Amino acid sequence: VGGAAVLGVGIWTVSAKHDYVSLLRTINYATTSYLLLVAGVVALVAALLACCAVLREDRCCLLVYTFLVLVVLVVEGAAGVLAYVYEEQIMDELSHTLPVTFVTHYQVDPTVTNAIDKMQVEYECCGAVIFSEWRDSVWLKSDPELNNTVPDSCCKTPSPYCGVRDHPSNIWYNGCIHRLEEELARHLLVMGAVGCGLCLLQVFGILLACCLYIRLRDLDDHYY
């Protein structure tokens, strides 16, 4: 159950915010997500070994299971701690890097461009902090014939060339940074809670495995 939960959270975080990872300057968010994915896969393998160990009363399988659970314990703990630490730093990172990313990488880096367009539509926002940032963007300055004042994804009803008119009835005036920070912080808190919380479950699994190992050893000694 613990392995499935960790794997599920890892898949959820990677799939839900995968596009926005390109807007972050550090790999902490992605690292936390992939650590949980690894922990989930290893935990599921360990669960299969545990079933084999119990059904066959195999002490060797039980030892391998215990080792794998120890690995899961370490990986989950690392992911949980990293998530909580990064959650405290995320706003500071975004405030320093996101405005620069918007004005210098839009229409320069396709991955970043897609992420920004998706974010502005999904979060109903325009620019990192405020819509007027686009006036200083590389995208706008690189094409003197461009009539747009903001990308079309800033429009309340996106359509080709709708970004020509920057009236509040046509485009969003609020920036994306606070909404992105809230979403990432929420995901990091969930990852931290799952990572650290399920460590207790792994400790319980290790204790049970040790008890079962001792029981099987005593039975073997008694038999011989």
UniProtKB/TrEMBL annotation:
One of its GO terms (cellular component) is plasma membrane. Signal peptide: none annotated. Keywords: Membrane, Transmembrane, Transmembrane helix. It is a multi-pass membrane protein. It is found in: Membrane. It comes from the Eukaryota. Its main location: membrane. Gene3D superfamilies: Tetraspanin. The chain crosses the membrane at residues 34-55, 62-86, 188-214. Belongs to the tetraspanin (TM4SF) family. This is Tetraspanin. The lineage of its organism: Eukaryota, Metazoa, Ecdysozoa, Arthropoda, Crustacea.
